[in-house]
Design brief:
This protein is of the alpha+beta class. It has helices spanning 46-58, 122-131, and strands at 3-14, 17-22, 33-34, 37-39, 61-74, 78-91, 101-106. It contains 2 helices and 7 strands; from the N terminus they run E-E-E-E-H-E-E-E-H. A hairpin with a 2-residue loop joins strand 1 (3-14) and strand 2.
Length: 137
Amino acid sequence: MTAAVRVVAALIARNRQILVQQREPGGPRGLLWEFPGGKIEPGESDSDALRRECQEELDVTVSVGRPIAASRHEYPDLTVDLALYECEIVAGAPRRLSAHDLQWVPLDRLPSLPFLPADTPLLAAVIRWFEAGVQAP
């Protein structure tokens, strides 16, 4: 049985574009794309973890909104329980601090990127979120 981790991710949007990052080469699941975020530390809430991860990875302060979607994926070495939350940048401009690449990707191009298997099921929910007209400015 593999270890299970709870991971939170940020859905950050502007002008029908989504902020995504590419993992560094050479590490686990290198060069695959993902939504910014990370593992929840002991004693942290989902919101606390997202605010910390966005500060560490992107050098931005975010407000955390409602949950958008969740997925569970079993990798050979790890089981990931992933929750995606609507987030808005309230201070700072995103910078690539811990990723190979960081991009604002148009909504229609999002499914063409090679996403992590745990993130892939969330893409349909992101498209529905936009279609519902609830996206952040």
